[in-house]
Automatic annotation (TrEMBL):
Residues 233-293 form the Zinc finger PHD-type domain. InterPro entries: OBE1-like_PHD, OBERON, Oberon-like_PHD, Oberon_CC, Znf_PHD. The gene is LOC103502121. This is OBERON-like protein isoform X1. Its main location: nucleus. It comes from the Eukaryota. It comes from Cucumis melo. Keywords: Coiled coil, Metal-binding, Nucleus, Zinc, Zinc-finger. SMART domains: PHD. CDD domains: PHD_OBE1_like (cd15612). It holds the Pfam family Oberon_cc. Signal peptide: none annotated. GO terms for molecular function: zinc ion binding. GO terms for cellular component: nucleus.
Length: 541
């Protein structure tokens, strides 16, 4: 069986604007023992021309350059013509998405030829927003109404769509498929391709674009399910995505139809059973294809995927793939399936805790697959006949087993050595940490003692200062009492001096008054003497 994985989940417009390109890839992983075929993905046709591919990285710069050149020419040379178109544009010519979904193709095409490019781009942008689905239930209801209008029409045939306007056709295809990529400005598909996609004659996956039914498959699924492509779509959910080289997809060994692992688990397509390759009376985990209803064994398929793809996986991818495998074999009842389930769970836990790195985990799971192959009942038989093994072959197998055991022992020894080194490093780090903590504790003890001595010295100083303060307070009180006593003495002396001064002053004033009195008495006596002398002289005269 050839493992062909096609990546085809269309990016939203806002994601496309950030990444710039749609990234798709095709990969072929052959399985030993079966003829190798070319990938049935029509990838050569996809890359034939820039107008027919949305996945070829080489064509994107050309498309963008053409669009930029066209926009530049429109701005520099056709300004007058654009203005005239805008001026002639009337509200009666306006159309809506619902008009496109329900009106006749020729009428809408004629109207759209008269509309300016800016208005048509607004229509496409509005539909991209609706398909984005971020607007809630209102937008979901609107796209449901549009799809119902389009899908209920009987006039939308390949013949009538030939006269449709290109933007009109892109909108109809986007509504019918629900894919925004048909509205992306950098994706340009031929009109015939868009028509074939609309009428379910070509795969709606832009990265695939195969004619339907793919590879001229005549099974009931490809014949009766509209738009189904067995090269890139799940036979259960009818969806496609970009996962590649992974256990997310399961391929049928017989009809080469593909199924999502989650869809197969959900619908019970993975279960226990007996296959043509299993030993009589033994059961193993099988995948039952919904397209052909035949079974394929899963253990060998998982082993082939891991052998071809595991070396290229990173840590997250390996963890994710181990999770897929553990979910596939969770319900396994055979010994090998249970061993694989527990091995995947153990590796996931070790990788999660950092015990095992990517390279060791990859080598471990690959060695485990080899061990399971050696433990297989078929490995003890010689092909189809079931006869006894020849001595030379037995020796060869024993040597292989011994070599495998030695390799496993080396892996285990390497793992134990790595664990021992890690444990030793942890112990050394712990010892260094203990020494650091002890040194810090000693330093803290010394610091505590030093602080204690400083506190005692400070307490002594405080006591001395308190004693000095008491002494100074005592002296201050004595000085205050002495000052009060001296003040009282001064007041007494001042009062006595004032009394002495008043007494001496009064005595002095009394002496002065006595002197002035004596002077006045003498003056009066003198005047009387003069007066008496004067009167005697007059008498004589």
């Amino acid at each position: 069986m050839a493992y062909v994985q096609i990546q085809e989940k269309m990016l939203l417009p806002r994601q496309q604007s950030q990444q710039g390109t749609l990234q798709t890839s095709f990969s072929l992983v052959p399985v030993d023992g079966l003829p190798q075929e070319e990938p049935r993905s029509n990838s050569g046709q996809v890359r034939e021309s820039p107008t027919e591919s949305a996945s070829s990285r080489e064509t994107w710069p050309n498309v963008e350059a053409m669009l930029a050149k066209k926009m530049e020419n429109g701005k520099t040379e056709n300004d007058d013509a654009e203005h005239s178109v805008v001026h002639r544009f009337s509200s009666a010519d306006k159309i809506s998405l619902r008009d496109i979904a329900r009106e006749r193709v020729d009428l809408i095409s004629e109207k759209m030829h008269r509309l300016p490019n800016e208005f048509l781009e607004e229509l496409k942008t509005g539909l991209r927003v609706i398909l984005d689905g971020n607007g809630g239930s209102q937008q979901r209801e609107e796209i449901f109404i549009l799809q119902k209008l389009v899908q209920n029409r009987t006039d939308l045939t390949a013949k009538t769509l030939l006269i449709a306007n290109r933007v009109q056709l892109e909108i109809l295809v986007a509504i019918n498929t629900g894919i925004q990529a048909f509205l992306h400005p950098n994706i340009t598909l031929p009109q015939t391709t868009l028509i074939e996609i609309f009428v379910y004659k070509r795969c709606r996956n832009i990265a695939c674009q195969n004619q339907l039914p793919a590879d001229d498959c005549t099974c009931d699924l490809c014949s009766n399910r509209k738009g189904f492509c067995n090269l890139c779509m799940c036979v259960i959910c009818n969806k496609f995505d970009f996962e590649v080289n992974t256990c997310r997809w399961i391929g049928c060994d017989l009809c080469s139809h593909w199924t999502h692992t989650d869809c197969a688990i959900r619908d019970g397509k993975i279960c226990m059973g007996s296959s043509a390759k299993s030993a009589p009376g033994q059961t193993e985990m099988l995948f039952r294809c919904q397209a052909c209803n035949r079974t394929s064994e899963l253990l060998g398929w998982v082993k082939d995927v891991f052998q071809h793809c595991a070396p290229a996986w990173d840590l997250d991818a390996l963890t994710r793939e181990l999770d897929y495998v553990s979910r596939i074999f969770r319900g396994s009842e055979d010994t090998r399936g249970r061993k694989l389930f527990w091995k995947c769970e153990d590796l996931k836990e070790k990788m999660k805790n950092g015990i095992v790195d990517l390279s060791v985990a990859c080598r471990t799971i690959l060695a485990f697959f080899q061990e399971l192959e050696l433990d297989s009942p078929r490995s003890m038989e010689n092909g189809e006949g079931g006869r006894l093994i020849a001595p030379q072959e037995a020796c060869t197998r024993i040597a292989d087993v011994v070599q495998e055991a030695i390799r496993k022992m080396e892996i285990v020894a390497e793992e134990k050595k790595r664990r021992y080194k890690k444990a030793r490093m942890d112990i050394e780090a712990f010892e260094r940490e203990v020494e650091d903590k002890a040194r810090e504790a000693a330093e803290l003890k010394l610091e505590k003692q030093r602080k204690k001595l400083q506190i005692e010295e400070l307490e002594k100083i405080v006591r001395l200062k308190l004693a000095e303060a008491d002494m100074f307070q005592l002296k201050a009180n004595e000085a205050k009492r002495e000052a009060e006593r001296l003040q009282m003495i001064a007041l007494a002396k001042s009062e006595k001096s004032e009394e002495d001064y008043a007494s001496s002053y009064l005595k002095q004033r009394l002496k002065e008054a006595e002197a002035e009195k004596q002077f006045l008495l003498e003056k009066i006596k003198l005047q009387e003497s003069f007066r008496s002398q004067g009167s005697g002289g007059a008498d004589q005269s």
